[in-house]
């Protein structure tokens, strides 16, 4: 989950976004990108097998929904095929560790807004908007945090606590933390996109 909330319009004159690569470099991706089905492969073709067999461009487009770095997506796609999901996740981690500051800026620029839950109070909107604006003003990029292991009812508090605690970091330390959160986000998204086959699906 990405925590990136818009802040009040009256603050817009002081709003600052850090340097990012041009948005036109990234293809438009409308949500999750499905890997192409291949009729000759049979009904038991797993998601990972389809990913391994997909054309490079299709695989990269799917990967860009997990991390919006072209270099990361290209590298993970180029190292196919993967024998299992854990091998893919390990390769994704390795590629994430090697991202340059420019790659990170590109990935951060591609992170979308995460809406607050419908039952969130206006005070939560105000507090998170203010905290997020302070974070972007200090570090010049959006705040990201992986909440895959956090219960839904605790997510708002976790985001607010995370922003406030990380505001005390120096920029270099925060960039390292941000890179690790992007890596964790990519892992979770990969798991959801290329999870276990239907024969091992857990209900």
Please tell me about this protein's structure.
The chain is mostly helical. The protein has one domain (45-200): UraD-like (Orthogonal Bundle). The chain contains eight helices and no strands. The chain has helices spanning 47-53, 56-64, 70-78, 85-97, 101-109, 122-139, 155-166, 171-193. Mean pLDDT is 77; it is low at 4-33, 38-43 and 197-203.
Give the radius of gyration. 18 Å
Number of helices: 8
The CATH superfamily is known as Oxo-4-hydroxy-4-carboxy-5-ureidoimidazoline decarboxylase
* Secondary-structure arrangement, i.e. CATH architecture: Orthogonal Bundle
**What best-fitting shape do the alpha-carbon axes yield?**
globular
CATH first level: Mainly Alpha
Order of helices and strands: HHHHHHHH
Question: What's the count of strands?
Answer: 0
Structural class: mainly alpha
CATH topology: UraD-like
Major sheet description: none
Q: Would you tell me the overall average pLDDT?
A: 77
Percentage of helical residues? 40-55%
- Unreliable stretches (pLDDT < 50, length at least 5) are 4-33, 38-43, 197-203
Number of domains: 1
Tell me the β content.
under 5%
| C-alpha end-to-end distance | 22 Å
């Amino acid at each position: 989950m990405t925590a990136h909330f818009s802040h009040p319009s009256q603050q817009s004159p002081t709003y600052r976004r850090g340097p990012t690569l041009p948005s036109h470099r990234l293809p438009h991706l409308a949500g999750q990108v499905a890997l192409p089905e291949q009729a000759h492969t049979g009904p038991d073709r797993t998601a990972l097998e389809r990913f391994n067999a997909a054309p490079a461009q299709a695989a990269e487009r799917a990967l860009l929904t997990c991390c919006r770095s072209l270099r990361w997506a290209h590298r993970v796609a180029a190292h196919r095929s993967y024998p299992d999901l854990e091998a893919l996740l390990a390769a994704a981690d390795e590629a994430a560790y090697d991202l340059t500051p420019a790659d990170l800026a590109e990935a951060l620029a591609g992170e979308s807004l995460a809406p607050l839950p419908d039952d969130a109070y206006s005070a939560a909107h105000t507090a998170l908007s203010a905290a997020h604006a302070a974070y972007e003003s200090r570090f010049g990029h959006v705040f990201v945090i992986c909440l895959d292991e956090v219960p839904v009812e605790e997510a708002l508090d976790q985001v607010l606590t995370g922003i406030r605690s990380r505001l005390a970091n120096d920029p270099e330390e925060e960039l390292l933390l941000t890179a690790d959160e992007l890596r964790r986000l990519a892992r979770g998204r990969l798991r959801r996109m290329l999870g276990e086959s239907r024969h091992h699906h857990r209900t």
